[in-house]
Design goal:
Layout (H helix, E strand, L loop, with lengths): L2 H11 L7 E4 L12 E4 L4 E5 L10 H12 L13 E7 L5 E8 L2 E2 L5 H12 L6 E3 L2 E11 L5
Antiparallel strand pairs: 1-3, 1-8, 2-3, 4-5, 4-8, 5-6, 7-8
Length: about 150
Amino acid sequence: MNLITYFALLFSSFSSVLSHSLIKTAHDPQPAFGCATYYDPALKLTVYTGVEKAPEYPGGSQAWLQFINKNLNEANLDTTVDCNVRIKMIIDSTGEIRKAVPTRGNAEVKDPNANEKEVLRVYLKSGIWMPGKCGGNNVTTEFVESFTPCIK
């Protein structure tokens, strides 16, 4: 395991999940008790917060590490900028990524740096995830993951 993979796993496993939510569509089950809502005007969907289980890459952390090793292009990284990248994603109830965007603080990044672009590229290439769960049902979920692709 190379150092980049080690630190990516370390920070991914300790990442702070800043928000969990579920988006209700006509096909989603009714939300469980405790799933508060907000409306996402960009997606034109009602978003529920407080899922019981966040989405996960199929096969768990070991499979995620293998995917990172295979797909992260170290040549695209810039160690002169912040190496801690946070990605906010919305994964639907089938596991498809509906939205992925880098964040700084609580704001979505409009002009991502080289590291944010590379991490975002890897996440978008990752395919179908295991969806989040609320009330025991697969639900569309918003969550934030931290990823550190380089070492200074």
